[in-house]
């Protein structure tokens, strides 16, 4: 069959002499054997499908991209001479040398795989990312919003595609949040200062006709300058009001632009009622 190399787990190392005797007995040319170290989980138990560990297909279904999986698995028990971690398949082919495979078991670190997958997502062409992200976005967003703008916001903020849903759900519906979020030590905001900012800005947003990101930014930054306050003191209350979350993909301008004028104003009025 012209097989030159046999690559297998090192549990077969002990039986290799038997294969050598068989090849010699038949007068066949023996292939080169490459025995790989075990891959274990974080508890140093051998990975196995029977124990419920993920297969390649499972990882794809969980939202990982194939290039990231191949890249990560290639680095289990082996590393490039220059210690690079993000490598294309072509680069792996050029650099890989089985003589440099470690003998000790390699740990399959899901946290590291998620990080690597996030790096591959960041490197994607925008159109490719949008097409892959769209099914996940549509699971959450039913309103007539600009889905491409939402996709652009989350591209650099996820590690796997299912992360999308929890990061964008506030666009569909404002969550019922605690007003304690308006008190932020680093931003130097309190519930009282946030209420004052939102009350001041509401009529300005109501009068605003240019509801682009630039138009919204101009209103907020002009207000901050006029009041002589820190950027965070003006931006934090607005972003909290329109998202109901402490952490969001994108800031106040982007969120308000995507939500549109009517919905943004509705959410700011809800915030004023909550804080009052």
What keywords describe this structure?
two-stranded parallel ribbon, 276 residues, 4 strands, 5% strand, elongated, mainly alpha
Q: What do you see in this structure?
A:
It is elongated, with a radius of gyration of 27 Å. The strands form 2 sheets. The protein has a two-stranded parallel ribbon with strand order 1-2. The chain has a two-stranded parallel sheet with strand order 3-4. Helix 1 links the parallel strand 1 (5-9) and strand 2 (32-36). Helix 11 runs parallel beside helix 12 (252-259). It is built from 13 helices and 4 strands. Among the domains are: 1-36, no CATH class; 124-172; 179-275, Arc Repressor Mutant, subunit A (Orthogonal Bundle). It is mainly alpha-helical and 276 residues long. The mean pLDDT is 92.
Provide the CATH architecture of the domain at 179-275.
Orthogonal Bundle
Main sheet: which strands, in order across?
Answer: 1-2
**CATH class label of the domain at 179-275:** Mainly Alpha
Major pleated sheet: 2 strands, parallel
Distance between the termini: 80 Å
Work out the strand percent: 5-15%
Structural class: mainly alpha
Overall radius of gyration: 27 Å
Short recap of the structure:
This protein has 276 residues and is mainly alpha-helical. The protein has helices spanning 16-26, 56-61, 66-74, 89-95, 110-123, 126-140, 147-154, 163-172, 191-207, 213-227, 231-243, 252-259, 261-275; strands at residues 5-9, 32-36, 39-40, 106-107. α9 (191-207) packs across α11 (231-243), α10 packs across α11 and α11 (231-243) runs parallel beside α12.
Give the helices and strands, then pairings:
Blueprint: E1 5-9, H1 16-26, E2 32-36, E3 39-40, H2 56-61, H3 66-74, H4 89-95, E4 106-107, H5 110-123, H6 126-140, H7 147-154, H8 163-172, H9 191-207, H10 213-227, H11 231-243, H12 252-259, H13 261-275
